[in-house]
UniProtKB/TrEMBL annotation:
Protein name: Alpha/beta hydrolase
Coiled coil: none
Alphabetized GO MF terms: hydrolase activity
InterPro entries in UniProt: AB_hydrolase_1 (IPR000073), AB_hydrolase_fold (IPR029058), Sec-Metab_Biosynth_Hydrolase (IPR052897)
Keyword field: Hydrolase
Domain AB hydrolase-1: 3-221
Length: 231
């Protein structure tokens, strides 16, 4: 199976370096993605929006011969959902890593601090304590050293979704910051951020307790969880 790995904010394809080998050992082919504007600190990000990120992954999907699995971490989950909407017949499953599908007309996060048209990795104090579980000082230093500013429009653009066949594509949510039982409760309570997930017809959950970046804090377990989701 071809598995496309979509990173979250501030990260490039190398953020999957400790996860991809676990998936490949199970016989799959991985395709870690560096999204437009995340190539380097010097990249021009000023005019890059959410649609550019979605279109880049759609182009990769179109280049592969068979249906693929999309894995989206954090904001990369919104990119994955946009790709499902664009190519519902080409996606075998979506795996959301501490993420989920965003509903039509919503933005990933338009409250992050923008500096000169881009969003640098903020100070750790900006994040919730749950985000930072298991992200020790060494991992924080590594993350900050490799972080690339996020194109501001990717965070603030409203996603446009048109094809309701997206609800037929199976989904697995890997829950890290809080357990999947809480997600189920949010769905039952009709919470706004889970309404799109609630409309998907086939949803599985895998609990992987850690912070918001399991590719750094628990990469082996994350790889195993992705393999289990695909299986």
């Amino acid at each position: 199976m071809d598995i496309i790995l979509i990173p979250g904010f501030w990260l490039d394809a190398s953020s999957w370096n400790d996860v991809a080998p676990i998936i490949e050992e199970a016989g799959h082919r991985t395709h870690p993605v560096t999204l437009p504007g995340l190539e380097s600190l010097e990249s021009d990000r000023r005019d890059i929006g959410l649609r550019d990120h979605i279109d880049a992954v759609v182009q990769l999907v179109d280049s592969l011969p068979d249906p693929v699995v999309l894995v989206g971490h954090s904001g990369g989950g919104t990119v994955a959902h946009g790709v499902v909407d664009a190519r519902p017949d080409r996606i075998a499953r979506v795996v959301y890593v501490d993420s989920g599908p965003l509903a039509d007309g919503h933005a990933i996060n338009d409250e992050l601090p923008v500096v000169d048209g881009e969003i640098p990795l903020p100070a750790w104090e900006v994040f919730d304590e749950a985000d930072l579980v298991d992200l020790d000082e060494d991992l924080r230093a590594m993350f900050r050293a490799r972080a690339v500013p996020q194109p501001a429009r990717v965070a603030s653009d409203r996603i446009a979704l048109r094809d309701e066949r997206r609800y037929d594509v199976p989904v697995t949510v890997i829950a890290s910051e809080f357990p999947s039982s809480m997600l189920v409760e949010f769905i039952a309570a009709d919470a706004a951020f889970t309404r799109e997930l609630a409309r998907i017809r086939d949803v599985d959950y895998i609990d992987l307790p850690t912070g918001h970046w399991p590719q750094f804090t628990k990469p082996v377990q994350l790889g195993q969880a992705i393999v289990a989701a695909v299986r």
